[in-house]
TrEMBL record, chains A, B:
Stretches assigned to the Aminoacyl-transfer RNA synthetases class-II family profile domain: 169-559
Protein family membership: Belongs to the class-II aminoacyl-tRNA synthetase family.
Species per Swiss-Prot/TrEMBL record: Prunus mume (Japanese apricot)
Upper taxonomic lineage: Eukaryota, Viridiplantae, Streptophyta, Embryophyta, Tracheophyta
InterPro entries listed in its UniProt record: Aa-tRNA-synt_II, aa-tRNA-synth_II, aa-tRNA-synth_II/BPL/LPL, Asn-tRNA-ligase, Asp/Asn-tRNA-synth_IIb, NA-bd_OB-fold, NA-bd_OB_tRNA, WHEP-TRS_dom
Record keywords, A-Z: Aminoacyl-tRNA synthetase, ATP-binding, Ligase, Nucleotide-binding, Protein biosynthesis
Gene3D superfamilies recorded: Bira Bifunctional Protein, Domain 2, Nucleic acid-binding proteins
EC number: 6.1.1.22
Superkingdom per UniProt: Eukaryota
Domain WHEP-TRS: 234-290
Protein name: asparagine--tRNA ligase
Length: 568, 568
């Protein structure tokens, strides 16, 4: 039986709820027990665990000395925020080496309820040391003190051992889970849109190019060093041989030689010509990037033309929505922007649903339901990690999730939003960016609307056509397009969304913006053949993590942040 | 309540099972009803649907004439393989235009049980035409006849409207769903590993390079056309001014002028020098790709060094496993291989789990359980699509899923596998590739083992160290490494998997293979600091789709195939 939702809950809660007893869920495919299944107990009752034999593994967070040279280790295995207290007697192992932050230990022992200890509900008394992965504290870059996030960012491979980043990864994983469940439950198909593309969704913007020209050039250079190209003299010599062989053929023909003799001579001439052609071709080879008529010769690149990393899977998703009704993608997208802000990454993940038979209002309903679903999911499944973020980073983050989960989103048009901002400017509010109809709302405007004015998520819709992409449907006013953005407290724009336009307008818009029509012909086909209203949106996944955790820097919201100068 | 598994089942079965009546599940966020929820009924009873008013949308597959000029349309919306028969009377609309393959229609009407019609369990009698998205049959490339897959591959944006590709997309979506459920239920965290990297997992292989040097070069070229660089005369003139200003300062100083006058003159000299410096810098600018000492100057590239698309997220996943115990990724990977086979893509998706505290045997157990889980999932959730593939492409595909789901996988060492192959060669079996200890098993060997010899999945483990990557653990025999591959009928290698090695050996291996140690220092850190045994594997997602569907060409198993010369 493939479906195992009770098992799913069991794994999340750390107990097998099916039989009602406080048994401990062993990790599958391993002989250890996740620490979560010992210390996270929804019934707050650890008494049934006393006396049970378990084996656990994890990394030492802190250690303190006990009596008779024994040690209490705080062991974390990432399955949850909390640590299991592990008690090791002096005779077990070199305790000095063991009691260092970052040491990996696998131990077997018996669970006990420490009397009178309010902090520790349950601890493990070690009977067997199975494995110690030591650490030289002189080298280990993450000592036990609390470290600034900017500092741990330099140790991106070790930072998941910190409380903050491990909690971020658990929140990300939960949000990814919620995303798949939300869309799959609602009949969306999960479609993996392509990463490398010859056409560009936005028709502009900073894109990363994908190429094999550099490596081909290097290979060629090495090859030319090993087998140097023919010299001019080589080519001249080959030409001379062609002439000679030609003369022989002419002579034989004029002297009416036998067919066989002429045939042999012609064959020799042909070989000489082939040899010359090869030499000439090889002598033309230039090391480095191939050029043709002063431009880079992309016909020699892997895909035969300039190819870029995707900035959005939306156009391809539309093809799927216009066949399969509902599709969504969850994948990486790329922008080669050199902005060093706390809100931009060169590589980030996007969730993009697309629905046929749906208009902008359906789209708003879907976006609102999806954001609420994620908030509810975190409140329900990630209580402990959310408490941690509330305590350490943003005391309002849990209340924010509750508010967003339970409050209907405000919905206002772009025109209403601008009018409202102009009004508050009149009343003395100062913005860095000037407000007038036609501007792209900046982050400060968005955050004012959602954080100050409405104090809840705000959907702004019907944007001026000139500030949005070519593929959006023009409204009857001819000035605005059926697009919407979802603004939320803490991050501003969380979701951006167009409703798709119809064919004729589409072609005009592509031409107006000077985009290469041939590259977009496939896209126009979707409008020519069996077209229908469809709409969708894009949610920046790392923005959602920022929103949930209250972290200020998006670089702490993704496993391996990529920004200008950093891809290590 | 975020968890909604009963809703999930409901959506999949097309009925709301909670109340037990045969109500129809409306699409959320839209006023239409998915066709699946009308025609797919596990109880085979459509009688309760008669008389219900619904609105549906979809694309016409075929049409036939009824009495009095009416039409019967076969409508498909991608929610399932089957079509809904839609009956339109002559007065409703231009029926000639409507009854063409590819036309999109949205219609409202009443469900009826056609008497005596065995093919159609239920049909829709149209009362209202809501929308028609026409098709010009002269242009539409996918007529109603059955089309070869090679042909529809040229219309990658329209091919999800074919039965085969829409079924592939549903199978893919189900497999992705199964993957997330399998790992999340078992306590793995979903980690999105980076796509752009300065270091390369395998240390070799054809990789795509990511760059902004071409676009920067183009921008510069345009800029230089608009603002030409300074001429030599400009620079000379600026030098002359610097000299003049210098002379003035010298004169003032020697004539003991006032401090203020000297100060002014010095300031002027400084400005002149700055101007000269700017001119000199600008005159040095060269259009095109920046070079330094004859080589491409990657310090000017976006990440400051050569950067490549990932070939595997495994090394980064290890960092997460060595912090959080269990992690998995599901993302795109890239190989710039120019092989035009039916089994290779330049862009494909990989599922990669990684577990700390786990050895090769745990890894085998996990891989076997995962593959079985996916097979069970498809048998349970994708019955209709699997029947389609069995009928059209591979009559054994359902039996194969059943066999894999229920049969323990054979487990043999590489040495045993080679002995066995040598034995069958002795008995007259011919392979294209020679068999001896030390070879990398080729596809024909793998398929012989799993399809002919054992007729079930085979796990081959303990491979010769020289044919595997640097990061694998050496066995006690010093000849083989703790690695395993899972071979399945139809595709051969489905899963490849190493068990990770310890620090010291690791460094030696990196050095032995001539890899740049500084780029791998972070990776070695994982072995230096709190190391532990860990293992994982990689499953090629498109291979799994081939295995499940029985399709012969991997290009039909992914939404947008990328191969040499094709990224459109």
């Amino acid at each position: 039986m493939a479906n195992g939702d009770s098992k799913l809950l069991g794994a999340q809660l750390g107990v097998l709820t099916s039989n009602g007893t406080a048994s401990i869920a062993k990790a599958e495919f391993s002989d250890i027990v996740p620490i979560r299944s010992i210390i996270v107990r929804p019934d707050d009752d650890w008494s049934a665990l006393a006396g049970q034999q378990v084996r656990v593994g994890g990394w030492v967070k802190t250690a303190r000395k006990g009596s008779k040279g024994s040690r209490f280790l705080q062991l974390n295995d990432g399955s949850c925020l909390g640590n299991l207290q592990v008690f090791v007697e002096a005779d077990k192992v070199d305790l000095g080496q063991l009691a260092r932050t970052g040491v990996c230990v696998v131990v077997g022992g018996v669970l006990k309820l420490p009397p009178g200890d309010k902090e520790q509900k349950v601890e493990l008394k070690v009977e067997k040391m199975v494995h110690v992965g030591p650490v030289d504290p002189a080298d280990y870059p993450l000592p036990k003190t609390s470290l600034p996030l900017e500092f741990v960012r330099n140790f991106v491979h070790l930072r998941p051992r910190t409380c903050t980043i491990s909690a971020v990864i658990r929140i990300r994983s939960a949000l990814a889970h919620a995303t798949h469940i939300f869309f799959l439950e609602r009949g969306f198909l999960n479609v993996q849109t392509p990463i490398m593309n010859c056409s560009d969704c936005e028709g502009a913007g900073e894109m990363f190019q994908v190429t094999t020209l550099f490596s081909e050039g290097e290979k060629l250079e090495k090859d030319l060093l090993k087998n140097p190209p023919p010299s001019e003299a080589d080519v001249e010599a080959a030409k001379f041989i062609v002439k000679e062989k030609g003369d022989v053929v002419a002579l034989l023909k004029s002297s009416k030689a036998s067919k066989m003799d002429i045939g042999d001579a012609v064959a020799e001439l042909k070989r000489a010509k082939e040899n010359l052609w090869k030499l000439e071709e090889r002598s033309k080879i230039q090391p480095g990037i191939p050029h043709k008529e002063g431009k880079i010769d992309y016909t020699r690149d892997f895909f035969g033309r300039p190819t870029f990393l995707t900035v959005s899977g939306q156009l391809q998703l539309e093809a799927y929505a216009c066949s399969l009704s509902k599709a969504y993608s969850f994948g990486p997208t790329f922008r080669a922007e050199k902005s060093h802000t706390t809100r931009h990454l060169a590589e980030f993940w996007m969730v993009e649903p697309e629905m046929a038979f749906a208009e902008l209002e359906d789209d708003m309903n879907c976006a609102e339901a999806y954001v609420k679903f994620m908030c509810e999911w975190l409140l329900e499944k990630c209580h402990e990690d959310m408490e941690f973020f509330a305590e350490r980073y943003d005391k309002s983050c849990i209340d924010r999730l509750r508010m967003v989960a339970s409050t209907p989103f405000e919905r206002i048009t772009y025109t209403e939003a601008v009018d409202l901002l102009i009004e508050v400017v009149k009343n003395g509010k100062e913005f860095e960016n000037h407000v007038e109809w036609g501007i792209d709302l900046s982050s400060e405007h968005e955050r004012y609307l959602t954080e100050v004015k409405f104090q809840k998520p705000v959907i702004v819709y019907n944007y001026p056509k000139d500030i949005k992409a070519f593929y959006m449907r023009l409204n009857d006013d001819s000035e605005t397009v059926a697009a919407m953005d979802v603004l939320v407290p803490k991050v501003g724009e969380l979701i951006g969304a167009p409703e798709q336009v119809h064919l004729i307008l589409q072609s005009i818009l592509i031409l107006e913006r000077g985009l290469p029509v041939d590259l977009y012909q496939w896209y126009l086909d979707l409008r020519r053949f069996g077209t229908v209203k469809h709409s969708g949106f894009g949610l920046g996944f790392e923005r959602m993590v920022m929103f949930a955790t209250g972290l200020d820097n998006i670089k702490d919201c993704i496993p391996n942040p990529r920004i200008e100068g950093r891809a290590d």
